[in-house]
Design a protein that fits this description.
0% of the residues lie in helices and 33% in strands. The protein is an all-beta fold. It has a domain at 20-97. Strands 1-8-12-11-9-10 form a 6-stranded antiparallel sheet, with no helix packed on it. Strands 2, 3, 4, 5, 6 and 7 form a 6-stranded antiparallel sheet that branches. It is globular. The protein starts with 10 loop residues before the first strand and ends in a 13-residue tail after the last strand.
Amino acid sequence: MANIDAAFGFRPVRHISGGLIRAEEIPITASYNTNIYNGQVVEVVAAGTIEAATVGDTQTAGIFGGVSYTDPTTSKPTWSNYYPNTTAASDLKATVYTDPNIVLEAQHDGTGTAEHNFSDIDFAGTGGSTINGQSSSEIATTTSGDGNGNFKQIGISTDPENSDTGSANVNAYVVFNTGIHIHKVVTAI
């Protein structure tokens, strides 16, 4: 049965040691000019804030899980599934899953198989939906084993709708790759 092609970014599913999945609050610079979607990979920048990561970034911080702020127009506390670009609030706090031991589920953009297990792999796409706030990032299947991946695939998902390794868009489980995640780099940013 063919897999459903419906990318959803990177979704925290469990902790590798059985612990709790916890998130951190990290600020976003006011008026940052790029949308950040739920499930999108984010990076830390020198100002101590987060921004949307791009393929090849070497200071990956985690996975974006939403944002809270005081709406600059209504002065009301607001929570959003995604960060709307150029929000001019001074109290932007992103929810970010930073623990490098969180197992994430994501969809391959090609035909992913168990042969990708324990190989480094990167992500593709930084877009998403401004209607539901969900990221459309995926696992970049063709980057497996190139030595530059932000993630390491550790298994194929058990999702019955997306576990067919004989067709494109299988879901897989990944963890952050050592040396790429901000908690595991050997030098400061």
